[in-house]
Amino acid sequence: MKIKKALASVISFITFTCATAQVNVQSSKIIYSKDSATWTMEFTVEKGFYVLAPDNIDDGTGFPMKITWTSIPDHLRLVNSVVWPLSNYHGQSSVFTEGDYSVKQVFVITKKKRKSPGMLEGKIHFQGCLEDRCFPPDEALFKTNL
């Protein structure tokens, strides 16, 4: 009995470890212009995996990618939704297959930024899948120094 519990714990750990490596945030940056700021984040979908793209309808059968903001400095305001790259199709689903991708978000500058403007923080939510199974939904944190 103890061996079965120990083995189940090891298998759970291995599955969790694999799940967190499906999508990796490579970098993020923000570029200021006169009236706006454009945030860009690069991410990689690991070899052999695919993730559901944000344009999928969340019908309960999978978890499409999305970005949530946890900290936006007070000199910035969201303008539009996140601009995602073009996706591929896997059966009936719109997906990002293994490879490198870039997302963008435009902000309006609402007032002059302070000397120490802070940090833009958020999470990218995703569900990675292999051909024969999907892993539980996961997220990766990102921070962009301004």
UniProtKB/TrEMBL annotation:
Sorted UniProt keywords: Signal
Superkingdom: Bacteria
Signal peptide limits: 1-21
Entry keyword annotation includes Signal: yes
Key word Signal present: yes
Protein's name according to its UniProt entry: Disulfide bond corrector protein DsbC
Top-level taxonomy: Bacteria, Pseudomonadati, Bacteroidota, Chitinophagia, Chitinophagales
